[in-house]
Amino acid sequence: MLTREQNERLVRTDRGTEMGTLLRRYWIPALLAEELPEPDCPPVRVKLLGERLIAFRDTEGRVGLLDELCSHRTASLFFGRNEEGGLRCAYHGWKYDVAGNCVDMPSEPPESRMCEKIKQPAYPCVERGGVIWTYMGPAELKPELPDLEWAGLPASRVFVSKRRQMTNFMQAMEGGIDSSHVSFAHRFNMDDDPMHAGTAGLAYLKADTRPKFEVVESDGGLLIGARRNAEDEQYYWRITQWIMPWYTIIPPFGTHNPLGAHAWVPIDDETCWAWSINYHPTRDLTEAELTAMRNGEGIHAKYIPGTYDTLANASNDYLIDRQAQKDKKSFSGVEGIAAQDFSLQESMGAIVDRTKERLGTSDAAIILARRRLLAAAETAAKGDPVPGDQGAHHRVRSASVLVPKSVPFQEGAADALVVRDGEDFVSI
Amino acid sequence: MLTREQNERLVRTDRGTEMGTLLRRYWIPALLAEELPEPDCPPVRVKLLGERLIAFRDTEGRVGLLDELCSHRTASLFFGRNEEGGLRCAYHGWKYDVAGNCVDMPSEPPESRMCEKIKQPAYPCVERGGVIWTYMGPAELKPELPDLEWAGLPASRVFVSKRRQMTNFMQAMEGGIDSSHVSFAHRFNMDDDPMHAGTAGLAYLKADTRPKFEVVESDGGLLIGARRNAEDEQYYWRITQWIMPWYTIIPPFGTHNPLGAHAWVPIDDETCWAWSINYHPTRDLTEAELTAMRNGEGIHAKYIPGTYDTLANASNDYLIDRQAQKDKKSFSGVEGIAAQDFSLQESMGAIVDRTKERLGTSDAAIILARRRLLAAAETAAKGDPVPGDQGAHHRVRSASVLVPKSVPFQEGAADALVVRDGEDFVSI
Amino acid sequence: MLTREQNERLVRTDRGTEMGTLLRRYWIPALLAEELPEPDCPPVRVKLLGERLIAFRDTEGRVGLLDELCSHRTASLFFGRNEEGGLRCAYHGWKYDVAGNCVDMPSEPPESRMCEKIKQPAYPCVERGGVIWTYMGPAELKPELPDLEWAGLPASRVFVSKRRQMTNFMQAMEGGIDSSHVSFAHRFNMDDDPMHAGTAGLAYLKADTRPKFEVVESDGGLLIGARRNAEDEQYYWRITQWIMPWYTIIPPFGTHNPLGAHAWVPIDDETCWAWSINYHPTRDLTEAELTAMRNGEGIHAKYIPGTYDTLANASNDYLIDRQAQKDKKSFSGVEGIAAQDFSLQESMGAIVDRTKERLGTSDAAIILARRRLLAAAETAAKGDPVPGDQGAHHRVRSASVLVPKSVPFQEGAADALVVRDGEDFVSI
């Protein structure tokens, strides 16, 4: 439970807010690289942390991310002409390069020097792992480039999707670090998810539905251990990495299945992008896997065609199927892991009222994540380094391991919890 | 005309408001019994007086009405599993019985006592007359069970429907106690309504379009008399019962036709449920009558299929037919008694601005009803008994009678104005 | 750039605001005469300057414009019966004539004098040029009737349309007095507009894309000169008339083509009517011209059938065609002069934030127009005469002329800038 004031501090991310200042200290997944497929392609509207932006890829392939509204008379650059090294406003022809410099101002007399004085606000961008990332904070505090394992793999080993969720990013992310709900919301979907198939861990998961949680701080976020009984003097530990400010990595089900990961990024205070990634560090994804992912299976979602909006949504009660619920094909009646999550999260309201919740021991990770974010927001306000802004904080793995009962999980699994390039991850 | 402050007191019904406190002193028609057709059927969202609730029928057939959002992390119980004597949240499996007791908390360790400390807010429910009623006020002030005549009849003698109206409940109810508008808004629909057919009263009604109104207080509300000229030394009186806080009974047209009644219940401050009831105390409704009622005729309405929303609504200008208006088939061009009323009432805005109205003598009942409600709200604030909360206040009838000119209507019609079980009502 | 406070003064037009007080000093284009095609036809909802009104044509053909909501209980007169010399409310039958007098009150006793005390607010109307105009200001300050050239021509020489634009009227009008954008937003549409065909001016326009602007005050508004190089010692001047508070006349392309004009009228602060007029003072419009205009070509727009809402709109990204943009068939990818304008103007937001704009020399007319409106608002506050309220201010023409370089445009074109009845306008 939070006070109203704490909740406000946690969820507000516009420029000038505490959390907004913190989030602007990180590289931000802004859009899929495929949304800007080629030089001089149509510009794309992007909204992040409450700011309306326009993304474009210039003639040389460089990506620009500018304020959406032209500096002149504030018409949208969505209608702009993307040509010859810049984006030209369709209203009076002012033209900007990817850095926001005004490079042509044909509405003014040839002798005018006004063009030199105009700078369209612009954010730097990089492309990694099929994602265009941007940095919206002060230049002097720009962190190392994003270095999550999936962002550095060859394209053939990664699949990335995004979907719009109609909630604040925090309650979406809280679902991502909440290992407890898996045993309920997704209970009847464990077996049929191809990413889970035929793993020893699944048997432990089903046998012990009341895992004990232990959460410890990592350098860049949290290690969230869910402990279940196993044979002999061992525990079965599923360890989730939460990397600040918004990344999660799902513990593996066997080393033959791809890994799963997420990022939860504010569009504005009432909507967010739920990024979902599958990847395998040592092999290409198979065509069957890719087909399933493109089809919205597993952690991905089915879309309304032509959009990143989900087919199941509040307007259709998430296509709930009461018979499937009755028949124990779906715990909530909603189909699909992703939709099961976002249907429940959206039902809390766009911004959950955390003064009304009643948290239990299974919510320990959520409690700690909030605490770290609020503390980091204070750090960010001073301009100090913040957790999760270093490459080393990104180069971690989640794991599913057996650890002797007498050994703390973070010690027993220490080796499994860091990225080893070219080496497989650890999972029973 | 009211002051802005009086209007606010009259229309606001959220918990904590004056009118909200009054309305929570009565049993409230909450949903149709048919919406929960069988044990363990899907739960149903219900909103009353601004509160988001969830109704369900448990394994033993008992009805529960709980806060919609789970006490744990505030996910909606709409997605809950209704099984084995309770409603289980789909997020982490917390389970509640119809009284709101937490009866299972599988996300916490077996030794946890947290479950005992959790109480999901719940309201008691009863089923009567095809309606599930609830009581949302203080337990110690709970009134007698609702005892309107129609609520106590065998199912074969009653038909109940509800429709959502896009206004505050007050301006809907004001339409219900406003006998004057019948001569205008419904003028061309008198004859074709099967409930009116072939009655002597109809002739008086048409002959005298300027009735004189007399309104007197009853124990539970108001007696609204509309006086028209008749033969000899008699008046034709149509007497409407208004029972606090929201019930009306339409004066009869002959004893062979069913009676009509309404209830106007706040969903929130800008929408309400208009309940419409036809019933006959001494005979079953005929198949022809039931077919007409199900088809939205008379005081009932046609729906958008699968909803309780009306087919004629603001988005389609209530399917207004200007030719029918010209041809004197419909006074306003809108078809159907119910739609004629709600189209006009919705056109005033969701909450009518009563500082702008100009009331005449024909509005006497409205003026008095507002006064009684505002006075009762003050009484309720002190915790004292309020009018309309006793069975005797409910056991009344409306009537259509001839009374000698020298006799006050409430005396001349006294016998006709109370329920006599098994006996017919009084109507010429 | 304006301060926030200046911007607010400029855009707010509800009754009681500064700009609202100014605009209520002029005759206002309220609706198309064709919307009330015959006596006793259905009433039509009209919203102007934030006021909800109802227009009707009575049995004798007179037009009334009343407050939409009945004085009695505030039901909408949209459902009213238009018959026998007045509009009768469908709720309780109160009836009003075109001047707002209550002429029948059948819900009250025959002896009641209440009817005499009721006056439904009403505005005077006149019909001119296919438009019904109204005056919403103080009776004692009512100006001369609207006397724009197009309003006085025979019907066969004028075509008038209106479309709803989802912005404040000011930013729509700023587009109308902004000659600079034509060279960009409409660049690839110059040739195919039949209204431009085969004129000498077009060649100058294309040859010199950086016109020099000179703006001077006229009695009733502004003369906006756009100067381009021509042969010898001459300039090609395109001179736009802006007549306060919201009229523009487009400079002609040859005398054989019809003229174009606009009016930009607030519906409320976030929407406006864009009126578009084509006319020729000395000849009838041809069937081909009328067909094109009805089809939404030129300055007119294509509609969603049955509405005055545009087919291209924000919900469909204005039907943008990126290939047409690439192929230089449309500068912004949007089709049609009107849609090119309103797509950009709506993209600024419903009310543009003028604290963020960066104006150049090409924005001189906009700067001066704002200044004149703000000054006139102060004049109106004192009840003094305001520019644009006299017939002489209306009887002006725009022109396209060659003027010797040494002569100021307003002198060289003086004769061309006034209406000469029965004589052609001046255009090369």
From TrEMBL, chains A, B, C:
This is Rieske 2Fe-2S domain-containing protein. InterPro entries: Cholesterol_7-desaturase, LigXa_C, Rieske_2Fe-2S, Rieske_2Fe-2S_sf. Pfam families: LigXa_C, Rieske. Residues 27-134 form the Rieske domain. It comes from the Bacteria. The keyword Secreted does not apply. The keyword Lyase does not apply. Keywords: 2Fe-2S, Iron, Iron-sulfur, Metal-binding, Oxidoreductase. It comes from Streptomyces luomodiensis.
